[in-house]
Amino acid sequence: MKSLYLLVLLSTSILIAQNNVVDTIFVQDSVKNLKFNYKQLIIPTALIGYGLIGIESDQIKNFNSEVQEEVTEHIDDKVTIDDFAQYAPAAAVYALNAFGDKGKNNLRDRSIILASSYLMMSVTVLALKSTTKVERPDGSSNNSFPSGHTATAFAGAEFLWQEYKDKSIWYGISGYLVAAGTGAFRIINNRHWFTDVAAGAGIGILSTKAAYWMYPFLNKKVFTKKEKENKGTTLIIPYYNGNELGSNLVIQF
Questions:
Q1: Contacting residues for 49 by C-beta, under 8 A, at least 6 apart
Q2: Per residue in 175-225, pLDDT tens?
Q3: This prediction's pTM
Q4: How far apart (Å, rounded) are the C-alpha atoms in residues 102 and 144?
Q5: How far is CA 223 from the centre of its chain?
C-alpha cells in the first residue's frame, strides 16, 4: 500500500542518513561527550515543515486524500496494534538491557533522557493539536495534526538508535520499521493524514535528539546528586500520544 511503502522508505532513508552523514553525535563511555551538529536538524525539521505546509497546501491536501482513498478502498477492518506498537522501540531498550545486552547509558541516564524526550514531544504535540485544529480523516474530531502515536513511536526509535547504534545498525532499523508501521496503521485506521504522520515522526526524532543534547546540562544543573550516593533510582516518565495522557514509573534498586 502507498502509505506503508512511503513510510518504510522514509524510515530507511532516515537510518541511512544518520549512519552515514547526518547523525554526528559522538559518545565515548558517557553522555557527557555529546556534541551538537546542525546537520542533525535536517531530517526532523524537513518532516515537520512538510506537515505544517500541508495544512494549507492544496496540492499536499490532494495527495493526503489520494492516500486515504486508497487505504479505505482496500482496508475494511481497523487494527489496534498501533496503540501498543508506539511504545515498542523504547521498551526494547529496557528489555535488551534486562537480558544483558547493555546499551550506551545506565538506567538512570537513559531514563532521564527518555523522560525529557517524552515531555518535549508531548508538549509539542498537544500545543500543535490545540492550535491547528485539523479534522481527522474519519471526521471524529479536530485534533488530527500531528500524530501523537507516531511521535511516540519515532521518539522511541531514535532512543533505541542512540543507545545501540555503536553495536549494530539493525537495532535502529528494527526500531524505525516498527515506528513506520505505527504511522502506517494510523493512516490505515483512518485516524490521520499522511502529513500528520510525517510531522509526528519529525517531532519524535527531534525530541529525542534534543534530550540527548540537553542531558549533560540537566545532569549538572538539575540532577546534582552523585550516583555513588544513590542506593536506588526512581523516575516518572510522562507521555501524551494525542489521545492519552499518563506516565510510566521506572525503579532501580
A1: 202
A2: 999 999 999 999 989 999 999 999 999 999 999 999 999 998 888 877 665
A3: 0.82
A4: 37
A5: 24
